[in-house]
Design a protein that fits this description.
The complex is a heterodimer. Chain A is 36% helix and 19% strand. By secondary structure, chain A is an alpha/beta fold. In chain A, helix 6 runs parallel beside helix 7. The longest helix of chain A has 20 residues. Chain A is globular. Chain A starts with a helix and ends in a 6-residue tail after the last helix. Helices cover 50% and strands 16% of the residues of chain B. Chain B is globular, with a radius of gyration of 21 Å. In chain B, strands 1, 2, 3, 4, 5, 6, 7 and 8 form an eight-stranded mixed sheet that branches. The chains are: A alpha/beta, B alpha/beta. At the A-B interface, strand 4, helix 6, helix 7, helix 8 and strand 10 of A face helix 8, helix 9, helix 10, helix 11 and helix 12 of B. Strand 4 of chain A pairs antiparallel with strand 9 of chain B.
């Protein structure tokens, strides 16, 4: 014990390590600016840091709950569940990875779909669950997305998707690549029905998801500071052996290069998307 | 002797016994020519032995070995096949926006006297050409050039043949800036609703989204020793096994070979290659492929364009394994 510590009365002495940790549940730290934030306030702020505006990753269900009107709400495709057809095994069995992800997230797979309303405009909305194996797209994600499109066509309503994904799911091998074709083909059918599709890319939207459903919006939106691209930054750096430009593959970079229509703060998404859809479907506010 | 040594470089690791035998045959031929001693019988015997060896080695290749054959430096590329499969090929260049991507070749030609459109990845043979072709890795311009040719095919009712042989879409700074992801997704959607027959053939490496971007089709063919996968075995191994050395395990686990994918219902037909792989006989490889393409085109041309597109979309919609 240092001489300094000995001087402090024992009743006000604290253990250095436990002092730095934040009590579970009440306080949390911004991963970007390290500001200590009051959990409840952060939730009210839709998981956007009030100090630095960093948009934290949020669960699919939380995303759709904060985006859609409280009711009516119907979940689509709850019966669709993953299977390990290839009996894929790397350092772990795919079956075990699935079970683990299901336990961790409470979801059957990485996409959640709801039919509901946005400020009274009926629509179908879906969101990727990033905590489910990195939001990777396999057969279930592809099928649920196609179901989302089917539902939108059936009820003649718009579609909004929130992507958060590392790309295709390697454990489903080529079948996951085919989901890129499947989701893109479904969106072709939605387009032929002249129904709007708004794609919101959130952090991160990479690989096969970015090269299919995420970039096919009539309007493509990104949340601030999201990592969006086809190849991962590390792979690019190793290939070109150059330092990547500042802000490379971030939303602001994409806007600058003409790849997206706009960047919208999470707290304004409801208003902005409702406004966009209203124009596209000639909706009269009542 | 230098000749024989160079030839050896065209043999893969697991082909070394064949290489040694072939070197011996070469040597005998050399001696034979030199001293005019009749050793034809011996050569014939060794040739037969060599063929048996090729047959036995190639009858039990692992997924990883097939992956190496699919990337063989002497393997025929798109332009090699075009030469044998089509006549009067007019190459068409450029995406009309940015540049001409040499990793994709495209154009119009005759297939058995019928006008058709052709799109394919193109790799280079020597270092200079490899760089020129960017190792067969397209940038967004390549996919946008391909899209232009697809639309051209539809407008003038030309059946479309695509040939796939790429490690993947190019991971570069400019490629990302110009929307590599959007260039790919746009093609996936366009191909799913194109009003003409599309036959895609994996002739070598089917590398992920960069392959699929010209591979959404009515009929998907794979050459016997080609591969098709969501990520390269090396890439998969370094992510899931944390070591690129486990590429052989990854290749096996992902099931990237024609036979595995055919069994899973992802590929419509497998096209046989000449004994020991397409690189041993380009003409024979092209002849076998041509027969397959003729058969498949005939089937597709029996359908009108509405039926064609609706059947294609039905097929795409049913991709996936899941429980309900």
């Amino acid at each position: 014990m240092s001489w300094f510590r000995k001087l402090i009365p024992s009743r006000i002495q604290t253990n250095g390590t436990s002092r730095r940790s934040v009590p579970e549940g009440v306080w949390t730290k911004c991963v970007k600016c390290n500001a200590v934030l009051y959990r409840a306030e952060l939730e009210r702020n839709l998981e956007v840091c009030p100090k630095c505006n960093h948009h934290m990753r949020i669960s699919a269900r939380n995303r759709l709950e904060q985006f859609l009107d409280e009711e009516p709400l119907v979940e689509i495709g709850t019966d669709i569940r993953p299977v390990d057809r290839l009996r894929f095994r790397d350092s772990k069995k795919y079956k075990d990875r699935l079970a683990q992800a299901q336990k961790k997230t409470g979801e059957a797979d990485a996409l959640v779909v709801f039919m509901g309303q946005l400020k009274g405009i009926p629509l179908v909305a879906c969101a990727f669950e990033f905590d489910f194996m990195g939001g990777s797209m396999g057969s279930v994600v592809g099928e649920k997305f196609a179901k989302a499109v089917d539902t939108a066509v059936q009820y003649n309503v718009s579609l909004v998707s929130f992507s958060a994904s590392g790309g295709a799911r390697m454990q489903e091998a080529l079948m996951s690549l085919m989901q890129m074709a499947k989701t893109s083909a479904a969106l072709g059918i939605l387009a032929r029905n002249k129904l709007p599709y708004i794609s919101v890319m959130t952090d991160p939207t990479m690989g096969g998801v970015s090269a299919s459903l995420a970039t096919l919006g009539d309007i493509n939106i990104a949340e601030p500071g999201a990592l969006i691209g086809f190849a991962g930054p590390r792979v690019i750096e190793q290939t070109v052996r150059e330092t990547l430009p500042a802000g490379f593959q971030r939303s602001e970079f994409l806007l600058e290069h003409g790849n997206i229509d706009m960047i919208v703060d999470r707290r304004e998404l409801r208003d902005r998307i409702a406004g966009l859809l209203a124009k596209l479907i000639h909706h009269q506010a009542t | 002797m230098t000749e024989a040594k160079d030839a050896n470089m065209n043999f893969l690791d697991f082909e070394q016994p064949i290489a040694e035998l072939d070197a011996k045959i070469q040597e005998l031929r050399y001696v034979g020519n030199d001293k005019e001693i009749n050793i034809n019988d011996e050569i014939t015997r060794l040739q037969k032995r060599s063929n048996e060896l090729i047959t036995s080695i190639y009858s039990s290749l692992s997924a990883w070995q097939i992956s190496q054959v699919s990337r063989h430096p002497a393997r025929p590329y798109t332009l090699d096949y075009i030469q044998f499969l089509f006549t009067d090929f007019d190459e068409l260049h450029g995406d009309r926006n940015f540049s001409d991507d040499h990793a994709i070749v495209s154009g119009i030609a005759y297939f058995d006297n019928q006008p058709v459109a052709v799109i394919g990845h193109q790799k280079g043979r020597d270092t200079k050409e490899r760089i020129f072709r960017n190792y067969g890795m397209p940038r967004p311009e390549g996919y946008r050039k391909a899209l232009r040719i697809m639309k051209l095919a539809e407008k003038f009712n030309l059946p479309l043949f695509t040939f796939i042989d790429t490690p993947g879409a190019y991971p570069g700074i400019g490629a990302e800036e110009r929307g590599q992801n959007e260039a790919i997704s746009r093609n996936l959607m366009a191909m799913s609703e194109l009003g003409v027959p599309i036959i895609s053939t994996i002739i070598g490496e089917g590398g992920s989204g960069g392959a699929l971007a010209i591979g959404v089709s009515d009929t998907l063919l794979m050459l016997q020793y080609s591969t098709y996968s969501v990520i390269s075995p090396e890439g998969c191994a370094s992510i899931l096994w944390k070591s690129a050395d486990k590429a052989a395990d990854a290749a096996e686990a992902m099931g990237i070979t024609a036979q595995r994918l055919y069994d899973l219902g992802l590929v419509d037909a497998i096209v046989d290659e000449p004994l020991g792989g397409a690189h041993r006989d380009y003409e024979e490889a092209a002849t076998l492929l041509k027969q397959a393409l003729q058969t498949e085109l005939e089937k597709l041309q029996a359908k009108d364009s509405l039926e064609l597109v609706s059947d294609r979309q039905y097929k795409i919609r049913n991709f996936g394994f899941f429980d309900t």
